[in-house]
Amino acid sequence: MTRDRLRIIFAVGIIAAFVGLIGITYICSSPDPADSERYLARAVEETGASNRVAGIYLNYRLLDTLLEVLVFSVAVLGVRHYLQQSEGMKLPNLSESEVVQTAVNFLAPLALLLCTFFAVFGHISPGGGFAAGVIAASGLLYVAIAHGIQAMNAQLNPVRLALMEKVILLVLLAFVLAPAVAGRIPLTELLPTGTPGKLLSGGSILVYNILIAMKVFVGAWAVIAAFAQHRGEL
Amino acid sequence: MIARWILLALLPIVAGIALTQTRRLSAIIGMGLFSLLLAAVYLLMHAPDVAITEATIGAALVTAIYVLAIRRTGRLAVVADEAPGLIAREGDSIVGLEYEILEGFARQIGLDLSVHFVPLRRVRWLVAHHEADLGAGGMVPLDSGEGALASTPMHLETGVFAFPAKRRSFNVEPIQEAPDYEGYFSELLEHDKNGTLSTAVSSLDLARVLSLGRIGASLQDLGRIDGQYGYAFLIAKQRTRLQRDYADYLTQLRASGQLADMIERHFS
Amino acid sequence: MAAIIAFVLFGIGVVALVLRRDLVIKLLALGLINAASILFLVSIGDRPGARAPIQLPGDLGIVADPLPQALVLSAIVVNFAILALALVFVMILVERYHTTDSIRIEQEMAREADDQETPCL
């Protein structure tokens, strides 16, 4: 049996397993609407956040989200570690034309503004910390493309960014471990649960959104910078 | 409703087209387009958070990272098939006459050298489509001036061989390109074991013939084609500046006698 | 309907992962598999006549299910980070074997394993 045929059989097997798994799950236990109904009915009053999605992943399932941030950090750490290059490699400082630079000078602050908006208003309108961090990192990427990676590193010291990343990670881990150390702490009510729709509502969702936005921003930027400076063979 | 169905139906089409591209850059851009369509679908499914996140990550960051990974600025991209003595892997590193020439050339024009081994017929395709800068690996350019490929000045003389069973006589049927076979050079040994060597190979060059002979392949039907042939590199016709730089470099090597030294080191 | 498309996309991803030889295309196919799984999860939460799960003041309509969306949000970002890590490994592999052809890399690895097994006499 040729190799390609074996591979096709393997692929079909995986697809069948996936479909079969989902089908069996559906048939044996149709999704229980009670959970979703509970969230839908009471999410806004209990969490104080208009954005029910933010209310779920930053209040009911807060620990899930914080540990996902940990997984993200580990992946970023891995990328940075494996893309280390020996010193003394002269990197070309490529910058783009005037047209691109002018456009970027307009777009990049817009991207940072969007990041701040999504992070701060994450509990009232769609967005959230993750999207905010990613948007900020891509804004920085535009600047790096237009003005060259050397100029970027001169503006944003990579050592300080790494330090900031570690500090934020430690703060988030402290949030995760605090109840184990000091008993029940209302992690979700560091800020008042005001009336939904106002800025100061939703408890500490605001705090977490901002922290996650900063963390994802620094992490995504570390990944992009590592790729931009790597001179390899692929 | 209808918009959602149209977009949903478009998704597998775009994904299918993107993943069957030959060029890597086309596949990456196709997947970026797919991410954008997917974000629109999420929006139509009343999931704005997911839509925003998918749009920024899939369309902007993932595409940017892949493009940064496969970019070729600052690099001299060479594709080659293995040709023992000229350019071949040995353990972790690459050795050979052509590799030394290319290393010196890359150093002279200030670029990094990157060599990729690909199947033989892909070498011509990749250079013609500007996916790689140079094609190496014991290429013997024959006299067809048309097409998208040009060749650099020769650096070593060689001969061209073919199996007569495929040709009516040596000098009548022209050989289009040399060497010519499907796949990698190392697969020719498999062909020899199966006894299909004469049908798998259209033409071979001297270095490969010698290497096959050393390993013990059966070459008794192989015959030499008359004519003057030499090894050169393949380069796209429009890259006039690169051709000029390389021609200068090669004349410099020849004049200083370094070329003769290298040939002696690798082939004596 | 969206669930079926998600299965189809999953199928395309797996077939491309298995059949294409280029390592970078394999990674893109993995990303496609991720996207298909996430599409499936989000499509579960959509109900007919629904709106986005953001509560506007004074509005009490049917709202799309926020639970799958919340679960999937951080998954997208983490998938991106892990895909970046996978791309780094692919780059290291390519630098070592000087080719992006997965079959060729397998042959080289087999050859190296053979070489290492010959005992030094």
Write structural notes for this entry.
The complex is a heterotrimer of chains A (234), B (268) and C (121). Chain A has 234 residues and is mainly alpha-helical. Helices cover 73% and strands 0% of the residues of chain A. Chain A contains 9 helices and no strands. Chain A has helices at residues 3-28, 33-47, 52-60, 62-82, 98-120, 129-147, 149-155, 158-182, 205-229. In chain A, helix 2 (33-47) crosses helix 3. Chain A is globular and about 60 Å long. In chain B, a hairpin with a 2-residue loop joins strand 2 and strand 3. The termini of chain B are far apart. Chain B is an alpha+beta fold and 268 residues long. In chain B, the strands form 2 sheets. In chain B, strands 1, 4, 5, 6, 7, 8, 9 and 10 form an 8-stranded mixed sheet that branches. In chain B, strands 2-3 form a two-stranded antiparallel ribbon. Chain B has helices at residues 2-19, 24-44, 48-70, 97-109, 120-128, 188-194, 197-200, 206-215, 240-256, 258-267; strands spanning 75-80, 88-90, 93-95, 112-117, 134-139, 149-151, 156-162, 180-181, 201-205, 223-236. Chain B has 2 domains: 2-70; 75-267, D-Maltodextrin-Binding Protein, domain 2 (3-Layer(aba) Sandwich), CATH 3.40.190. Chain B is elongated. Chain C is mainly alpha-helical and 121 residues long. Chain C has a single domain (2-50, 63-117), classed as Helix Hairpins. The radius of gyration of chain C is 22 Å and the shape is elongated. In chain C, helix 1 (2-19) runs antiparallel to helix 2 (23-44) and helix 2 runs antiparallel to helix 3. The interface between A and C is large, with 57 and 46 residues.
Question: How does the SSE layout of this entry go?
Answer:
The complex is a heterotrimer of chains A (234), B (268) and C (121).
Chain A: H1 3-28, H2 33-47, H3 52-60, H4 62-82, H5 98-120, H6 129-147, H7 149-155, H8 158-182, H9 205-229
Chain B: H1 2-19, H2 24-44, H3 48-70, E1 75-80, E2 88-90, E3 93-95, H4 97-109, E4 112-117, H5 120-128, E5 134-139, E6 149-151, E7 156-162, E8 180-181, H6 188-194, H7 197-200, E9 201-205, H8 206-215, E10 223-236, H9 240-256, H10 258-267
Parallel strand pairs in B: 1-4, 1-5
Antiparallel strand pairs in B: 2-3, 5-10, 6-10, 7-9, 7-10, 8-9
Chain C: H1 2-19, H2 23-44, H3 66-97, H4 102-117
